[in-house]
Structure formats: C-alpha cells, structure tokens
Amino acid sequence: MSDPDPKFAVLLHASGLSLVDPEREQPSGGGAYVWRGVRAKEPGKAFEEAKALLLEEEPFLEEISNAPEEIRFQAEEIHRLEEDAELEEADSDYLFYTEED
User: Fold this and answer.
1) What's the rounded Cα separation, in Å, for the pair 48 and 74?
2) How many Cα atoms occupy the beta-carbon half-sphere of 2 within 13 Å?
3) Apex 93 CA angle, 4 and 7, nearest 5
4) CB–CB of 54/72 below 8 Å?
5) Which of 47, 48, 12, 33 is CA-nearest to residue 93?
6) How far is it, in rounded angstroms, from Cα 1 to Cα 98?
C-alpha cells in the first residue's frame, strides 16, 4: 500500500472573470482569490487540482458568466500542510473584486 499524496494549501487567483452583477445590465470585469486544500504529488499538481476543484463549485460558477477556458488562473501561494491537517481547514470563501474602468 502506497503512502497518500501530500496535502497542500493553494491560494488561487482567477482573473479575466465576467462577474454577474444583478444591479447592472452588463457583467463586470474582475477576478477572485480563494484558498483550497488538496492532495497532490507535488506543488504543480496541487495547483491543477485546486483549479479543477474550483471549476466544479456551483457557488463560484454562479457568480461568473465566463466559459472555464476563458479564465486565467495563477497560484499566488502553495504551502505544504502537515499530514494530520484537515483539507477543509485550508479552504476559504471567495474574495471577488471588480476592475475599475
């Protein structure tokens, strides 16, 4: 039996978002930051896992009008977690921002 993959906390930055704004007739340009806890073999894979996880989250998808392939993702930070850490403890709420014209 092999050891489980290490745990990581990944701070994702999603940019190039078209944010749904019920008070405006047009979407607002912006982005979002969010932490996600994942298991992966190495930090690069942790970034990919966190990104895939975010793109499956209905609350996130309801806030944007982009197709997933239009979103630019960057890992702002990646930290290895202790093995006894709970992955959910690394998760945060979304922090959305809009870009000023």
Assistant:
1) 10
2) 4
3) 15
4) no
5) 33
6) 47
Report the pLDDT value the prediction gives residue 101, as an integer from 0 to 100.
Answer: 55
Place of tokens 């996600």: 36
Question: Hey, what are 19's tokens?
Answer: 């944010």
Query: Is pLDDT of 23 > 70?
Result: yes
Residue 40 has a pLDDT of 97
CA atoms of 4 and 68, how far apart (whole Å): 29
Contact 36, 51 (CB under 8 A): no
Specify the 3-state DSSP secondary structure of 100.
Answer: coil
Backbone angles phi, psi at 8, to 5 degrees: -135, 150
Residue 36 has pLDDT above 80, yes or no: yes
